[in-house]
What does this fold into?
Amino acid sequence: MSTRALPVRYEYHVAVIHPREDRVLLLPGVEGWRLPHFAQGERHVWQDVAHVNQGLREVLGVSATTLRCLAIDYRREAEVVSKLYAAVPRDPSWRPPPGGRWVAREEVGVLPLEVEGHRRPLSEWFAWYAGAPRQRAPWYLPGWHEAATRWAAEQLTGAGMPPTGPAEQLRSWQRSAILRLPTTEGAVYLKAVPPIFAYEPALTAVLAAADPARFPRPVAVDPGRGWLLMRELRGPTLDTRCDDVELWERALATFAEVQIASSAHLPALRAAGAPERPLATLAARLAPLLADPDAGMPASPAGLSADERRRLHALAARLEALTRRLAAYDLPATIEHGDFWAGQVVVTGAGFAFLDWSDSSISHPFFSPLLFLVEIEDFFPRLPGVRERLRDAYLRPWAELLPGRDLVAAFELAQPLAALHHASTYHGVVLPNIELKWEMELMLPFYLKMALRLAEPLLGEG
It folds into this structure.
């Protein structure tokens, strides 16, 4: 019998919402009513939605805006990932195909459905749609896309680079909404962020003003709404260039140079709203997480076990001493990216530029390379010692600034503390301020487990 794995198949089901009424489109199926659906062989992260809109154009002939992902199901035995989204037609006058019905919430509860597993998420959608909590992402509701597109078009026209075509929706999740607009001067992106990241537009503008070649250049910002309209950075992202480790070395060295330069501009970064999360406050920031028995999601397969909780508290008991050791290296506070990985680095004609400053703060510089290096062997599986090689490339600019210091020891000491730094931010800032916890709650045990893994040599010291 063959044990060869089946290729993964990706199914998409879409709850198309009536533009003006609380109804969802159902189509006649073989064994009941069904949602519009299509399948693809290509993998997309669930936050990306351009392919969902394209699928709806192909199966329904409708131009739609995808609001959000409602559910994800993985059927291991068939190697099928099934995702359910909600979307709304952009043209209020659009009519369903023959046989299609706009169905109210009550009918969804009683009609025979071809996929019985859709009944619960559809009922939950209707209940969710009727509420309006403070943390709700505005782009999760009809009408936001049109308002944001109008604002972008006005700003672009005023800047002398009017749009030359419709906006394309690229991403929709609670952390951000991203649209791409073609203009007379190339593509421009509109990024919208929630209030917890509302400083990103102004912060990006400050960073780009100091070093235009290494950051997205804003065309317009609306800090009150968390909107950033920025020119496209042309070039591939670094994660697509796994044939050239020297390129990755140069990228990390450039990022270190950016951090070093930022240490001279901290007043401007603070004025732009960048939060400060100093190394000295890490133990205090972590304390609420340690006191929260549910923080590590113990009931989830991805959560912390009882033994991992014990080890976490053992690590926390030594945290003050570890932070003092790291502080003794006297590295300056700088811009800390917060979500730095190879997909955030654009290889441009002028070198490298760095995207996505939502999670950034003023903190210890060595907290930034954590995600970049923690799984680097996946990008270069045949290159022994690649993590250490890239780490050393990142440290070289720092060695020029701080000669004679054992920066390798400082870097390795910083890595488990970096994971705790990110975990505390998710627990204290991100998760309390989003409505749908499932979208990001796994990041908390992810970072805590990472901290334990990276801290094993420290815990072994006694």
User: Anything to note?
Assistant: Residues 347 and 381 are 22 Å apart (CA to CA). The chain is about 35% helix and 20% strand. The chain has a mean pLDDT of 95.
